[in-house]
Amino acid sequence: MEITDLTPAERRVWDAFPLGEGVDFRQGEDEDPAQGDSWGPERTLRAEVLRELLLDGPVREGRIAGLKVWGARITGRLELRYGTVGHPVRLRLCHFEEAPDLYAAKVVALVLSDSVLPGLTAANLRAEGVVRITCCRITGPVRLQGAKLSGALFANGAHLGRPGEVPEEAVLQLGHTEVGTDVWAPGLVAHGEVHLNGAVVRNQVNLNDAELNAPGGTALHAEVLAVGTDLHAMRLRARGRINLGGARIPRSLNLAHARLSNPGGRALRASSGVIGELWLRDAAPIEGSVNLRRAQLDLLHVPPEVWPGQVQLDGLGYRVLTPHLPAEQRLPLLEREPDGYLPQPYEQLTTAYRTVGDEAAARTVQLAKLRRHRRTLPPYARLWGWLQDTAVGYGFRPMRAAGWLLLLLCTGTLAFALHHPPALKPSEAPAFNPLFYTLDLLLPIIDFGQEGAYAPVGWYQWLSYLLIVTGWVLATTIAAGVSRSLSRQ
Q: Fewest Cβ atoms nearer than 10 Å: which of 211, 220, 311, 444?
């Protein structure tokens, strides 16, 4: 391109480029780039001029060239597809008429902060430094899938998509992108899906105070996302599904104070993920179901009131459960499994209580497990289970059996003290003792010689039958309870 073809505005940028100096076209600090379509030729730059400058612009020895522009209107498409740009590109507070195309380009750094764009195509981009779309307003998709960024991606305060619309294409596409440091996006507002499927972020992802709006769809799609440290999403507002299936987050997934809403659908999915700590402290009650099946966590901090009505927990493993609460407050969650009774969630909760030394709570969980399992059995098995539960609490309430035995012993002793049963052979019978006679009836493995020497009649005979039967039932259930206790040890 001949230098004589440049407009005065373009000449300013052309002359500043080899010196690495900036050109500021703004006429006031409070200008809105959204009004850029009304800016005149004095601040209009053609995309083809910028392309020529970036790919083959003049350089000066001893100076670091670079494109630095504020407040320009850029017409045409900035076409850098497959190009190699050896200089930083900084186009701040600019208005783009068409979406720049940097597909498979190589750049030093790309800064578009505070600009207004109809989209950005930069799939397979290679950036030696940072990529910034901080506070940008981008109505079309931002395509960065497959990109490799040595530095960070900054999208803090950016507004993506159109309010009230949920496009079919994700508004932020970072699928299989590799980021050398952080994805920094606190305050991001997205009207459509944010796609991080298969991305690798060497440090952290920050979505604090973000708003992700995809009602009835997927707000954040981050299956098999791998981060180096944390995924922060404190005070996140998400309308739509949060999908973190298979994600690897070694330190913490922090959703404290978050509001997750997808009524009638899945609000949060982290199945098969490996997460250091999952925090939902002070979060609003989740609207929609939660799937944590086969996830592995070190710490799970979710107050009971946050859980929704349907939670899939089968295969979920965790070492510590906080805050520490009585088992009675945790058990209702296990009733919310849509597939009905599953033993593993009870065993996992038991293990968590034993890890912190709360053996009483662990026994309460095991008792609740057996009671719920009983509801799935045929009638005869339910009856036998009910007898074990009533007698000794399935072995977890051994003192209950002692209470029953004491009650029956007192009843039989009093009844037979008031009415001695007649002796079968008066000349050979030992002296009658109502206490030991009752013990003979109750305890099948003990013989004091009383039961065989005396034969009650009338309703006392029926009382003796009752004591014999209940004694056998108690003995059997106690034996089953002791066996279960020994097997737990």
A: 444
Supply the pLDDT for residue 391: 59
Looking at residues 394-402, what average pLDDT do you find?
64
Does position 276 have pLDDT exceeding 70, yes or no? yes
Residue 484 has pLDDT above 60, yes or no: no
Nearest to 216 by CA among 262, 161, 258, 171: 262
Would you call 311 exposed, middle or buried from its count of C-beta atoms within 10 A (0-12, 13-18, 19+)?
A: buried
Share of the chain above pLDDT 90, in %: 68
Spatial CA neighbour of 414 closest among 472, 467, 470: 467
**Shortest CA distance to 159 belongs to which of 129, 197, 117, 130?**
117
Token reading at 296: 């592995």
DSSP string, 190-246: EES-EE-TT-EESS-EE-TT-EEEEEEEEEEE-TT-EESS-EE-TT-EEEEEEE-TT
Average pLDDT along the chain: 90
For residue 89, the surrounding DSSP H or E stretch is strand 89-92
Tell me the C-alpha distance between 68 and 46, whole Å. Answer: 15
Distance CA 175, CA 150 (A): 16
pTM, rounded to two decimals: 0.81
Cβ-based neighbours of 4, under 8 Å, separated by 6 or more: none
Q: Is 406 exposed, middle or buried (0-12, 13-18, 19+ CB in 10 A)?
A: exposed
Vertex 469, ends 465 and 473: CA angle to 5°? 170
The whole-angstrom separation of Cα 263 and Cα 56 is 54
Residue 69 CA from chain centroid, whole number: 42
Q: 40: how many CB neighbours lie within 10 A of its CB?
A: 8
Q: What's the rounded Cα separation, in Å, for the pair 342 and 15?
A: 72
| pLDDT the model gives residue 302 | 95
In the block, tokens 């973190």 appear at 244
pLDDT at 159 over 90: yes
Closest CA relative to residue 352, chosen from 367, 365, 338: 365
CB atoms within 10 A of CB 440: 24
Q: Are strands 142-143 and 120-121 parallel, antiparallel or unpaired?
A: parallel
DSSP per residue, 292-334: -TT-EEEEEE--GGGS-S-EE-TT-EEEEEES---HHHHHHHH
Residue 390: how many other CB atoms lie within 10 Å: 15
Distances 244 to 247, 337, 432, 487 between C-alpha atoms, Å: 5, 20, 76, 38
Q: What is the mean pLDDT of residues 260-285?
A: 97
Q: Which of 164, 163, 120, 166 is nearest to 145 (CA)?
A: 120
CA distance 190 to 188: 6
Distance (Å, whole) CA 422 – CA 453: 9
Tell me which H or E stretch contains 382. Answer: helix 379-392
CA distance 333 to 312: 10
